[in-house]
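Per your request, structure below.
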């Protein structure tokens, strides 16, 4: 958890709902907070001709300056503001890369399925493009007044790390560990076990799903607990306040949301392949489901294959200490 923190703003209270988290994290990380506004274009009538004109840059700078003034009431750390030009996702990606941003914090709608495909989503698009962690905050339905920034910075009571036994999920461990250390809170390793099912003949060439013998479920839970205990042992030797939890649920996403709902004030960390388009819709995505429906902020990261491999080697080396 190094480098700077960026939050994209568009002048709405919806986007500003992520400001408290961004401010708190920048303060904890002793990092520069970057407020970024992408210049939008709108259509205007020039007689019988339609023209496309950009937003006035002076107005955008004024908005960012007044936002900084409000933040200064509760945050003394370094803050910079930037007006970017170009398509939003392209401009934000270039900025993150050029300025070596280490964390992006932003608000996201809870839209899923066809509605999201029609309207588009900056959050989803950035997830496909960026190689840095993104903390996604989903504001409540009643958006906070744009002129208010809470004087009480949000804390983090616990970091929940979703693990499924894969190298991909484990690649998020160093980031989750650093986040928990930064907040001085416990790190909870969470695995969701789905009850195994089989298709039972129901007559007339029809089948219906039925739970298998409870013994199989018990064995699956024991196996998950053993895997988590092995990872926790390595963390404990490093002085990490670590806990483990195996949750039984009909779906992984539903289980993670249930755990998050029982842990108010937590941050849920999850790694994702970052698939997009029809492939994502056909295969489904645990990260996608959690991202748009989680009751707590979600720290999501799309690591490269090399980063997944490096994470695996790191954990093997640390487990032998």
């Amino acid at each position: 958890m190094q480098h700077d923190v960026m939050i994209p703003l568009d002048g709405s209270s919806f986007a500003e709902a992520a400001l408290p988290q961004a401010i708190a994290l920048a303060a904890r990380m002793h990092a520069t907070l970057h407020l970024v506004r992408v210049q939008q274009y709108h259509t205007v009538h020039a007689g019988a001709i339609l023209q496309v004109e950009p937003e006035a840059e002076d107005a955008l700078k004024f908005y960012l300056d007044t936002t900084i003034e409000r933040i200064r009431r509760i945050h003394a750390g370094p803050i910079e503001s930037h007006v970017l030009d170009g398509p939003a996702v392209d401009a934000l990606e270039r900025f993150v890369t050029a300025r070596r941003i280490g964390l992006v914090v932003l608000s996201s709608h809870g839209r899923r399925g066809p509605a999201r495909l029609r309207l588009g989503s900056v959050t989803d698009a950035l997830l496909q493009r960026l190689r840095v962690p993104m903390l996604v905050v989903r504001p409540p339905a009643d958006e906070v007044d744009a002129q208010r920034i809470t004087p009480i910075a949000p804390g983090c009571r616990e970091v929940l790390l979703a693990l499924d036994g894969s190298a991909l999920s484990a690649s998020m461990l160093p980031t989750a560990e650093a986040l928990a250390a930064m907040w001085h809170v416990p790190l909870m390793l969470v695995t969701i076990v789905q009850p195994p099912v089989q298709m039972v003949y129901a007559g007339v060439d029809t089948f219906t799903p039925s739970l298998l013998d409870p013994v199989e479920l018990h064995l699956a839970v024991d196996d998950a607990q053993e895997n988590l205990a092995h990872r926790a042992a390595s963390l404990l030797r490093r002085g990490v306040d670590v806990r483990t939890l195996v949750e039984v649920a009909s779906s992984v996403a539903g289980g993670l949301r249930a755990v998050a709902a029982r842990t108010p004030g937590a941050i849920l960390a999850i790694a994702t392949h970052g698939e997009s388009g029809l492939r994502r819709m056909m295969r489904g995505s645990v990260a996608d489901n959690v991202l748009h429906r989680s009751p707590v902020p979600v720290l999501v990261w799309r690591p490269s294959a090399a980063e997944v491999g490096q994470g695996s080697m790191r954990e093997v080396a640390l487990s032998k200490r």
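The chain has two domains: 1-154, 155-321.

Regards,
D.
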